[in-house]
Design goal:
Largest sheet of chain B: 6 strands, mixed, barrel
Radius of gyration of chain B: 28 Å
Order of helices and strands of chain B: HHEHEEEEHEHEEEHEHEHHHHHH
Radius of gyration of chain A: 18 Å
Oligomer: heterodimer
Low-confidence stretches of chain B: none
Number of helices of chain B: 13
Structural class of chain B: alpha+beta
CATH topology of chain A: Rossmann fold
Mean pLDDT of chain A: 89
Structural class of chain A: alpha/beta
CATH class of chain A: Alpha Beta
Order of helices and strands of chain A: HEEEHEEHEHHHEHEHEE
Strand order of the largest sheet of chain A: 6-7-8-3-9-10
Number of strands of chain A: 10
Number of strands of chain B: 11
Shape of chain B: elongated
CATH superfamily of chain A: P-loop containing nucleotide triphosphate hydrolases
Number of helices of chain A: 8
Shape of chain A: globular
């Protein structure tokens, strides 16, 4: 197939295409089906909020979309690639180039400065040291933390740490951002700053975002809301 | 190198623990640096004589068993032997039992066998002319503040005089230096005449302790050694001809198998070190499981994470080990000098450094392997969830 034709087809396709996806965990002899036959399309540039009670399978679904876990059954394509068919090493390389992660508890390296934390994903690229530093500075500037580049995580507030984590997630310019309760550990004001930042990344920079949240106010920043219950997709809303 | 800061940051995450572990690595390799060359010296004693220009002939069975004087002329007649002379152990003590003096009674040409002994001609003549005269190494003379003309009484630990007195009077007639090529600790030695010793000692067996011979050509060493040993084959005084280092080693083996003892000490030290650093690494990785999971989330492969953890353990060993061996290189000459030559520690040479670095790398990989494999195999979702 011609590369140009393939590119056009990919652009018309949803970025994330999930078909009949199930996930079963085995704990000893016990089998626990966490996700049941999920079908879902996420278009390029969408901002999805995944909601639902604890144990509904939100984080499991997010982990699948981010390539951190593999489905037991069904198919999962991101940007036209069947990531459910990928081996561990292949998946690691795919994550490095295509997905940015934001966690509830930031998960920054405590011994590294903000700048070095943001540079981490770039270590896996062929960029020179100078280019890595430049790109990390740009990402930090984008999240409004240029003046905190040399600070270690322990010297930053929760909101600032989460913004550093967002800078780390976007520094390699991934297509997709997956965020697991990004405001779960923040006060209201910091949460709003982080959500506004994510919304800006979605609207101004075209990043496709999938975010797990318990907070209906956080979900209001998304363009779509999905509700999961007991591993089943129960409701999909488009936020106006 | 682009990952170095990551490895360094992991290592310095718990500074106190890392510094204490490094200190234990440092101590182990300080000991290694000091003792390994001793071990090598004592375990390589039986190597071939090929290529040396000086050989030592002792009794095949024990160096405390004497050899007949008559052997000297026979050895001298072997083609390729330039010079041969004899010596005997004396075992002198000066004033106090703790002041041991490495002393030998020697034949008239014994000093000529050691061109590295630098003794002024006049002093050499004085030595040849004086039956109770003695020449001593410069370091030994400095140690006891001896000077030419001093009358020195030495007590023998083994040999009494015919009158039963164990104290032997000597006069210092020469003080020699050990030349640049000397590395035998000769400047700690006390030489006096074998003739005086033989005539005055109560045992009066007329036997000698050993012979030293110089060769015309080092290439002939193997042939000459066989020829010397053939002289006494099947007699009651069979000989063994060997290098000086082998002779020194067998001399020390009267006390014990030094090589084995030193080897056992080092093995115990390294075994303890492996347990200690292994525990540190296991603990360090266990604490960082979520961080390692984040690295894998960002796209680091399992092998990449394995390499980072192994890099950390190897770096820990290399830093502590290199500082330890560098300290040994500084301390060894100081110990030799400070002990007044009683303890002769060989310098930490290139061979020692190479062996040391290899041991550091091997231990580094060994102690890092299990935690590194754990890090490589961790499941991201479980690790992030704290399971």
């Amino acid at each position: 197939m011609n590369a140009a034709v393939e590119a056009v087809q990919n652009n018309n396709q949803p970025l994330v295409q999930i078909r009949n996806l199930s996930k079963v965990y085995e704990r000893g002899k016990q089998k626990l089906e966490v996700l049941h036959h999920i079908d879902l399309d996420i278009a390029r540039g969408d901002f999805f909020a995944l909601m639902g009670p604890s144990g509904s399978g939100k984080t499991t679904l997010l982990n699948m979309i981010g390539g951190l876990d593999s489905p037991t059954d069904g198919s999962l394509s991101v940007d036209g690639k069947r990531i459910d068919k990928m081996g561990e090493g292949q998946l690691a390389r795919w994550r490095a180039g295509n997905v940015g992660f934001v966690f509830q508890f930031y998960n920054l390296m405590p011994a590294l400065s903000a700048q070095k934390n943001v540079e981490l994903p770039l270590l896996l690229t062929r960029l020179s040291g100078a280019q890595r530093r430049k790109n990390a500075s740009i990402a930090l500037q984008l999240v409004g933390l240029s003046d905190r580049a040399s600070h270690k995580p322990s010297e930053l507030s929760g909101g600032q740490q989460q913004r550093v984590a967002i800078a780390r997630a976007i520094v390699s310019d991934p297509t997709l951002l997956v965020c697991d309760e990004p405001t779960g550990d923040l006060d209201r004001q910091s949460a709003e700053e982080v959500l506004t930042l994510l919304q800006r990344l979605n609207r101004e920079h075209g990043k496709t975002i999938v975010m797990v949240t318990h907070d209906p106010k956080a979900a209001e920043y998304a363009s779509h809301t999905l509700h999961l219950d007991k591993g089943t997709l129960v409701e999909q809303q488009r936020v106006v | 190198m682009k990952y170095f800061h990551l490895i360094w940051a992991a290592l310095m995450r718990r500074k106190t623990r890392t510094i204490f572990t490094m200190l234990s690595v440092l101590a182990a390799f300080l000991l290694f640096g000091l003792l390994n060359s001793v071990r090598v010296a004592f375990t390589s004693g039986s190597k071939s004589v090929a290529g040396v220009d000086r050989l030592v002939v002792t009794s095949r069975y024990s160096i405390i068993q004497g050899l007949p004087q008559s052997l000297q002329a026979q050895i001298a007649n072997i083609p390729g032997v330039k010079l041969v002379d004899h010596a005997n152990w004396f075992g002198g003590i000066y004033q106090d039992p703790k002041n041991f003096v490495l002393s030998f009674s020697v034949g008239p040409h014994y000093l000529d066998l050691f061109p590295e002994i630098e003794l002024p001609d006049a002093q050499r003549k004085a030595f040849d002319a004086d039956r109770t005269g003695a020449v001593v190494g410069e370091a030994l003379a400095e140690r006891y503040h001896w000077k030419i003309g001093d009358k020195i009484p030495l007590q023998s630990t083994i040999f009494p005089q015919k009158n039963g007195d164990k104290t032997w009077p000597f006069e210092i007639v020469g003080i020699f230096k050990e030349g640049k090529n000397g590395a035998n600790g000769l400047d700690q030695v006390f030489f006096f005449h074998w003739k005086y010793f033989d005539e005055a000692n109560a045992f009066n067996g007329h036997d000698v302790g050993w012979y030293v011979l110089r060769l015309d050509d080092p290439k002939q060493a193997d042939r000459v050694a066989h020829a010397v040993d053939a002289l006494s084959a099947n007699s009651d005084h069979e000989t063994r001809t060997q290098t000086e280092s082998a002779f020194n080693a067998s001399f020390a083996k009267q006390i014990g198998d030094i090589g084995l003892i030193v080897g056992a000490i080092m093995a115990a030290v390294f075994f303890t070190l492996i347990l200690l650093t292994g525990n540190t690494m296991a603990q360090a990785v266990r604490e960082r499981i979520p961080e390692l999971a984040v690295l894998k989330t960002l796209g680091f492969t399992g092998r990449g994470v394995l390499a980072l953890v192994l890099g950390e353990s190897v770096l820990l060993l290399l830093i502590g080990g290199v500082i330890g061996m560098a300290l040994a290189a500084v301390v060894a000459p100081g110990v030799s000098k400070g002990s007044g030559g009683m303890v002769q520690l060989p310098p930490v040479g290139a061979g020692n450094w190479l062996q040391g670095i290899i041991v550091m790398l091997v231990i580094g990989v060994l102690v890092g392997l299990l935690p590194a494999m754990r890090a490589m195999r961790l499941r991201i979702v479980d690790a992030l969830a704290g399971r």
